[in-house]
Amino acid sequence: MKTATQNLINDHVYILRLTDVMERMVMTLATDSADMEMVVNLIKNYADGFHHAKEENLLFPLLVEKGFSTDQGPVSVMLHDHTEGRRFVKGMTDAIAHYKTGDESVIPDIYMNMEGYVELLRAHIGKENNVLFKMADKAFTTLDQEKLLTEFATVETTGYSDGQIARFILDIEALEVIYKE
Q: Which residue segments constitute the domains of the chain, with CATH numbers given?
């Protein structure tokens, strides 16, 4: 049976690919503001708006029902990481806006926020894949997993236009071609 946690792990594959692109952008000192904006858009709409929304609105509340706390422990840590990630994205967004006005002095700020996001998300995904999701799989019944999968599918079909999730993935793949190793 496919599980809800496996669904989230599948999202992680693409989010990690995006972090690889971001790392290469920093390493090559990329200065294309359109590519930087595409990265921010993908984070806001795919990693955060789609993936983190499934976790925050569906997975974490079910974990709380199963006895997990939002004040301490793994769910609390994940929520904190999501907040920190949003702080890095705001830093990127603000610096890119200044850069687009011709202010090149903010390029190090863009890179610093990209690097911070990459480091945070890689560690975050490791914690989810290797700790939290294993705990969730033990806490959830088959019915819980099926219900979550159905709710995840509803998020994808009602929250996004037809094919939008696939387009996010295509955008990640297009950036990979530009910023290949």
A: 4-178 (1.20.120.520)
